[in-house]
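Support request, please re-run this one:
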Amino acid sequence: MSDPRRLAVLRAIVEDYVHYREPVGSKALVERHQLGVSSATIRNDMAALEEEGLIAAPHTSAGRIPTDKGYRLFVDQLAAVKPLSAPERRAIHTFLDSASDLDDVLERSARLLSQLTRQVAVVQYPTATQARVRHLELVALGESQVLLVLITDAGAVDQRVATLGQPVSEEELAVLRTAFLNLSVGQLVRGLRDALHALPLTVPPGLQAPATQLASALLMLLESGAEDRIVLAGTANLARSTMDFPLSIGPVLEALEEQVVMLRLLTEMNQDQHGVAVSIGRENPYDELAGTSVVATGYGRGSMSKVGVLGPTRMDYASSMAAVRAVARYLSRILAN
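Re-run finished. Output below.
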């Protein structure tokens, strides 16, 4: 649709419905917005919008609400994502910079995003297979026990205790540490599994057995850290939106709890010209989420992992897009340090 006035009417209907939570009539549009035309003209425009499937009457009242198609046109017509206010940016900076580790960073990001948007915040853990090894440390816990600590450039820190079949001196552990570092640092995590099979050949014969045991422990560590998972916050915000789910919010809550549905959806979403992906209502390929919208963007190395919000289709899209993009940028900056 290219008619500027009808686009302005649609925009006003979306904004009023998001704010007031009730169907919008022509009289309210005249009173609240400077559209420069009469109530009769607006009614004609609303009839045209309804004919195009952009708005609909939820019941026999004079008011109209946006459809999924109407929300999509509204989002696509956003000229730019409005920036957050200076206090909001300072709050993000202060809150996230004081985090202690990756888990804390992601949990804080989810909580902050849910507070900024009053929606359910979803943060996907950095994709392990796309990360590179930043450091690998071997720490002696006893004569035959070694703690493996793996640090990736995605900010993840994982550890596992390996029990060796023979005592290892500090000098021998230093040799093993050097061998593992030479093999792993800078290596993609997904490529490290194959490389580990060659490790015993790079150490003296007397250390091949403990090297093999350490390699096995590291493989198990890599496997345990490979599972995709997400952090959620603000699920209780859905309770404020029960009127937006005529049947039940139960399926939505189940999809969030299951996590697999959300992980698949986040992976499949494509970002628009603003660097944000928006999936509205029945655009979501999962029936459980047909009454919701998801706003997400990528963060970290290659923007492979996603951060976003989920809420009813009656969402403040502009503010949600701005908040999601801002938190993603801070997350990327923190993980790059």
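The beta strands are 55-56, 65-66, 120-124, 133-140, 145-152, 157-163, 230-233, 277-280, 292-299, 305-312. The mean pLDDT is 85.
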